[in-house]
């Protein structure tokens, strides 16, 4: 067993939470029991993830996407009430780490995705160091690269670009980071990968020649929270279990 507050303090320090300006609270969002023996992890604090944590007898649900966002109403009603009610009934702590988990150079979503897909990281850059630049270990055509991504992530990416173009130097940011496309174009990369695509990226990709790849918000952010949970479990000698949903978005 470990104290809840010790786990949260360790996560805050490792992820350097104080360095980030975020639009969601990082750390404890729903308070449960003071001691933790088992952690459940999930990308999002969905009802399914909360139910999984309860079924597994977890004392803490550790997520990337929590339940409180600056753009949402503050009232606890409807779906939010149901999730929180379940957490409180089972005394499960729910803690979320958003941008700090994206950016961590080892445990973060960007670093873990690069490891999963075999990319070489050169450096972090951009807003709050949320973007990464690197290289493919072996240059591939865009078509070949997409096949590799699909096989690794279990879903077919949406891509805009010349399928015969050779891809060497890439930039990426997991999740909903399509708005950073111009920033990566300015870096002279061959392709940019993120989780989502909006209407304007189609035109930018076609007009600049830089390929744009949308590989799924959930699919690109599966790995950071899992790595964080395993690191916490190892450091505090706790049990850990992971919940994954078949989320196409």
From TrEMBL:
Keyword Metal-binding belongs to the record: yes
Keyword list, A-Z: Metal-binding
Domain of life: Bacteria
Binding site for a divalent metal cation 2: 64
SUPFAM superfamilies for this protein: NIF3 (NGG1p interacting factor 3)-like
Residues reported in the UniProt entry to bind a divalent metal cation 1: 65, 102, 217, 221
GO cellular component, one term: cytoplasm
Cross-referenced Gene3D superfamilies: NIF3 (NGG1p interacting factor 3)-like (3.40.1390.30)
GO MF annotations, alphabetized: metal ion binding
Keyword Transferase: no
Protein family: Belongs to the GTP cyclohydrolase I type 2/NIF3 family.
Subunit structure, interactors included: Homohexamer.
UniProt protein name: GTP cyclohydrolase 1 type 2 homolog
Species in which this protein is naturally found: Neisseria sicca ATCC 29256
């Amino acid at each position: 067993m470990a104290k809840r507050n010790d786990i949260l303090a360790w996560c805050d320090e490792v992820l350097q939470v104080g360095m980030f300006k975020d639009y969601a609270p990082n750390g404890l969002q729903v308070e449960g029991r003071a001691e933790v023996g088992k952690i459940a992890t999930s990308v999002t604090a969905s009802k399914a993830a909360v139910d999984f944590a309860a079924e597994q007898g977890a004392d803490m649900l550790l997520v990337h996407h929590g339940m409180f966002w600056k753009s949402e109403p503050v009232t606890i009603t409807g779906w939010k009430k149901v999730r929180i009610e379940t957490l409180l009934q089972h005394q499960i702590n729910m803690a979320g780490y958003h941008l700090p988990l994206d950016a961590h150079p080892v445990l973060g979503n960007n670093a873990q995705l690069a490891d999963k897909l075999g990319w070489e990281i050169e450096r972090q850059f951009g807003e709050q160091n949320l973007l990464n630049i690197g290289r493919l270990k072996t240059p591939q055509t865009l078509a070949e690269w997409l096949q590799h991504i699909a096989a690794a992530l279990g879903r077919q990416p949406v891509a805009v670009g010349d399928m015969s173009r050779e891809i060497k130097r890439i930039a990426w940011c997991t999740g909903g980071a399509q708005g950073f496309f111009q920033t990566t174009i300015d870096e002279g990369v061959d392709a940019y990968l993120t989780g989502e695509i909006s209407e304007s990226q189609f035109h930018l990709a076609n007009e600049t020649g830089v390929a744009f790849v949308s590989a799924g918000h959930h699919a690109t952010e599966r790995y950071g929270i899992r790595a964080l949970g395993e690191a916490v479990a190892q450091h505090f000698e706790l049990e850990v279990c992971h919940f994954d949903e078949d989320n196409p978005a």
